[in-house]
Here is the input.
Amino acid sequence: MTSLYARRRRRNMIAKGLSLLATLFGLAWLVVILFDLAWEGLSGLSLQVFTEMTPPPGAAGGLLNPIVGSLILTVLAVLIGTPIGVLAGTYMAEYGRYDRLSSVVRFINDILLSAPSIVVGLFVYEVMVVPMGHFSGLAGAVALAVIVIPVVVRTTEDMLILVPDQLREAAAALGMPRAVIIAKVCYRAAKAGMVTGVLLAIARISGETAPLLFTALNNQFWSTDLNAPMASLPAVIFQFALSPYKDWQKLAWSGALIITFTVLALSIVARALAASRKSA
Amino acid sequence: MVDVALQGGAIGRGVRSSRVRALDRLRLGDAAFALLTRAAALAVLAILGGVIVSLFIGSLPALQAFGVNFLFEQRWNPVTEKFGALAPIYGTLVTSFIAMLIAVPVGLLIALFLTELCPLWLRRPIGIAIELLAGIPSIIYGIWGLFVFAPFLQDHVQPALIAAFGDVPLLSDLFAGPPYGIGVLTAGLILAIMVLPFITSISRDVFDAVPPVLKEAAYGLGCTTWEVFRHVVLPYARVGVIGGVMLGLGRALGETMAVTFVIGNAHKISASILAPGTTISATIANEFTEAVGDLYTSALIALGLILFCITFIVLAAARLMLARIERRLG
Here is the structure.
């Protein structure tokens, strides 16, 4: 009896130890990656990075044009993707909560949410770059918008479903038509959650590289022309990191640090927003 | 509506008609809004349809030229325009397999720690930290893998693996060759780090959903924490866990940038997992903009179509399983 008991206890201790180890293992990667990023990125980070263009090999320079390019692409993608996402989420939560179309869209949307982003790039290449005959910033923005949509659809639907039906009923009792109820009551009640969704979507696309490679391509020079190839931070990191030039690799690390910092800040803000809504 | 009523009252005559007009306007706006949201919902479906159709049309030339053989042909020669997808498909499957081999047990153990062992005040911070790991963009994993992780493996881990398994039959083939640093194993390990947060957070959620009564009953019988986890929590949460694992697998199969940096982009199938290889997504990312000729481009798009089909099946299965456990809870 005692030996069985001892064996069970020993096995339990081993399992507990392993699970603690696994957790430390998982956390260690986060620490190591962030530390390496800060170590390699901070040494190259200076004002120059934000004020000068990408240099030719061997010269000093910065990341101004890819930073601006990334900002333009992100803003445009959010402007295109958010309205579609919000409206689709609205349909699923308000008009067709229990109908067949909603459940199909929900299923497809969940798949799009984790579909490989490189396939999105190929899709936009086929429908925009080929007909237009050249790579363009606009195509890059559309590719990113395709990634924004499922994120926004999901959070919008989830947040609208959380809005208590009593609010809708009270508004309807005042004689408001449905569209006004949704716009003036439901959206307002779900605002924090919906903003969280958009922030998460921005965090998601600000590091996306694969869909930009064959849509916005890249640009060595300053360009804000949406009809021409446009530089973006991830694409420049990809090009510079794989180059043999030390200066370029250094800039790639700085770019990586900027992106990671942005993404982490966005997701922490989004989390804080979501948490404040929950406690309220 | 209130101001409409007041307006109508003040005017007196024509109350009816102005009210009818206002109501008509509201009804029209309502119908238009409903239609608009419906159109947006349909647009989501259209995106999926558009992806499938455009990839299919784009890959037609390659599919016509090579037929089913495209799937089983190892050669990938842009000069003679002979293309086969076997090497990238093999690389995709092997790297994902390595990733899941590591990430599944580790992810489940972390979820066990978070749900059963961790002090309450630590639960949220650790959970958030693990989820931040999921938020780091894949290109960051790529640059880190290339400059930090691959050299580390090359200097410290791979020589030890070669020395340890060099004399063991079978395993010696698996760990053969010089330690390049980059290669199939490195890509698999990076993928493991990347999918770990997905598996952890979904497993944690389904473990949390196990009714406490079940666990308490088992504890009441004198079960240890491990026995409760192994014989009560895991069986109850099985479907959800498998769903979470498949979701992680879908990510691993489609992951592009992190893999592109560290796999070495070699179109061959080697027995050794230390050798460079390629995956579907890495091939597309590396070669697409440099592809000359319609057949080359088309072959790459066909690769994309294959990738989309594989991930679609995996993700659909994952979602159906997760939906099943949600229904049981709801």
Observations:
- Residues 2-44 of chain A form the longest helix (43 residues).
- Residues 25 and 255 of chain A are 27 Å apart (CA to CA).
- Chain A touches chain B through 94 residues (CB under 8 Å).
- Chain A has a mean pLDDT of 91.
